[in-house]
Design a protein that fits this description.
Structural class: alpha+beta
Largest sheet: 6 strands, mixed
Order of helices and strands: EHEEHHHEEEHH
Low-confidence stretches: 16-20
Number of helices: 6
Mean pLDDT: 83
Number of domains: 2
CATH topology of the largest domain: Beta-Lactamase
Shape: rod-shaped
CATH architecture of the largest domain: 2-Layer Sandwich
Radius of gyration: 31 Å
Length: 208
């Protein structure tokens, strides 16, 4: 846990010329009411400091996370432990953004928790990359399912025809029919394989 004195040193560093200007900092009381918000917090959220201070931290809630997510978070910090997680917030103009968040319980002179100090960094690019990979995986999975279903028919036909050819057809007419069916099935198989190659190339190009 962190004391208010040590926190003041951290805040001084975050606001001077040598501090990390990309760090979003805030302090809340035990009920989640914001008592301090740094400039980066105001910039990213789109709220003025006067709008943030005195408001509950729910002001930037995106409704992306369920209640259990926040219950676990409050349970952790309420027990005096540091909580870390990725949170999706929403700015004043409705734009959502992701932050990697660390919440540190603050203790007073009597050793009791009286505030929570939050440090956040933007991770929009990371989350966009993860979402991109998920979409690509879903598209590939759907494509492979569709193509495998389409490929099954001509492959089954070819196997059946080769079995019949192995048994030697009764007449030349039957033999010619089987060869015709075999060519048709092979052509269908070739067509589906070309479609698969084309669609895989499209997916690859879309995510490069």
């Amino acid at each position: 846990m962190l004391s208010m004195k040590n926190l003041e040193l951290l805040l001084d560093r975050s606001t001077d010329d040598t501090g990390d200007q990309n760090v979003i900092c805030s302090i809340t009381d035990l009920k989640g009411t914001i008592t301090y918000a740094n400039k980066k917090f105001c910039e990213i959220s789109g709220y003025h400091e006067s709008e943030l201070v005195g408001s509950n931290h729910n002001i930037i809630n995106s409704s992306h996370h369920n209640r259990d997510f926040f219950k676990q978070m409050w349970r952790t910090i309420g027990n005096g432990r540091i909580w870390q997680g990725e949170v999706k917030n929403k700015s004043k103009n409705g734009v959502c953004y992701w932050v990697d968040t660390i919440i540190i319980p603050l203790i007073n002179n009597r050793g009791k928790i009286n505030h929570y100090f939050s440090i956040r960094t933007l991770i929009n690019e990371k989350k966009e990359a993860e979402a991109k990979k998920e979409r690509q995986a879903e598209e590939l999975s759907l494509l492979l399912h569709q193509v495998s279903h389409q490929l099954r028919q001509p492959i089954t036909q070819i196997l059946s025809i080769t079995n019949l050819l192995h048994e030697k057809p009764a007449s030349k007419e039957d033999f010619d029919k089987l060869i015709t069916y075999l060519k048709s099935s092979a052509s269908l198989l070739d067509n589906y394989s070309r479609i698969l190659t084309r669609d895989l190339e499209l997916i690859k190009n879309n995510y490069n």
